[in-house]
Amino acid sequence: MAVKQVRIIGGGLAGCEAALFLAKHEFSVTLYDMKPEKYTEAHRADTLAELVCSNSFRSDSLANAVGLLKAEMRLLGSAVMEAADSTKIPAGSALAVDRAKFSGHLTEKVMNHPNIRFISKEVTEFDPDEPGVFTVLSPGPLVSKGLSVFLQKLTGEEHLNFYDAIAPIISRDSIDESKTFMASRYDKGGADYLNCPMDRKTYLSFYKELIEAETTKLHGFEKDRKLFEGCLPAEEIARRGEDALRFGPLKPVGLRHPETGEEFYAVVQLRKEDREGRYFNLVGFQTHLKQGEQRRVFRMIPGLEAAHFERYGSMHRNTFINSPELLNFDFSMKKYRNLFVAGQLSGVEGYLESAASGLIAAIFILFREKGMETSFFPEKTMLGGLSRHVSMPNAQFQPSNAIFAMVPAPEQRIRGGRRARREYLSTRALDSLKEYLTENPFLQQ
Ligand SMILES: Cc1cc2nc3c(=O)[nH]c(=O)nc-3n(C[C@H](O)[C@H](O)[C@H](O)COP(=O)(O)OP(=O)(O)OC[C@H]3O[C@@H](n4cnc5c(N)ncnc54)[C@H](O)[C@@H]3O)c2cc1C
Q: What is the pLDDT of residues 79-98, one digit of tens each?
């Protein structure tokens, strides 16, 4: 007999999304959350799906990757999108919500659903192989201590991370390549890096602005953290002395200009973010700088004067697994077939992306129950992109927001600039999702 029992651990954005989707599809869902008995360092409200910081779900425009993600989730009947749309407040082109009404709305739906049983309990262990039961593990980036100890056993200690270190991503078409050159250090492995060379004067003014730039405010529980030496914020390295960056991420050794043979005082390296090389990340530039300061200071780097930031750098307390090693495309664990990991713990970043991963996991549980094991998500969609992000081999894996680098490049040249290209990618994604829904009509039930 098909499995129709689901246990969901964590009633945040991912957990509520998964619970309501599966309950709608006649699964018997048991949802655990440790609230209101116990709270993480950031949660305060006794309701589920709490927004712990901003009340904005970011842009609602199809020229924006998270806008596309919203449109895809609406097509799939997302409970989180339905709650956001019903509790929205005016915020220009962004989708912002009344946070109390938003989480109240979802809590009420969960509590009143006949197929969902809510249990207030801190889960510290469970049997991932329990016959006849699917598990969705979605305890969020601040998962309780007891459960994270158990998680280390499930994943292996080396595959559980407690902080993220995200470097900015720049779109290539905004880089002035007349000032940069492609090369690998000591010519090893092909000319894979885009290098931004600096002379001494440029380096010193960049260094001075970097150490004085304004940083984001850390949450109380993040202040006393110890930083990994191998993964310090760029501005922190700079503060250790004038030359510290030149001996670290801006090391110029082994990098000569391929045509002139010239050597430089310092070099910022950018690594490809997607197969086609449409996006590059700034190697070693994980940072606490405010976004406006990232634009101001990082645009001092030669070639990046007009850089368009596809994603900003950040660093914060965030428990996440090394997903490419551990997860399949459907967010299930390679080692435990019926255990799905969703939310920020799975290596996505952001409210919407967390909810989206809960939706994908729930959809694939439904496919499993229907015996449609080999189904996959359309690759041109942002949801498909998130699935690839967590499951494709990646030695440098870090959590990520939805970004256009996650979907394949346009098949042909799109005229009209960046906005037109993005709108094209969104229209293409939504068309392919609509086609997929026609082939799988039960998803829209
Ligand atoms: C401080 C902070 C601020 C953030 N600000 C933003 C922001 O402004 N915008 C944005 O897009 N993203 C933000 N994020 C990132 C992320 O999008 C959110 O954390 C998001 O809520 C993650 O969704 P989730 O479903 O994975 O986890 P959560 O929404 O955190 O839900 C997890 C739930 O699991 C419960 N839980 C934890 N451990 C256990 C256990 N052992 N047993 C039972 N229940 C448990 C918790 O009580 C909680 O209700 C922030 C993250 C943090 C940590």
A: 999 999 999 998 888 898 99
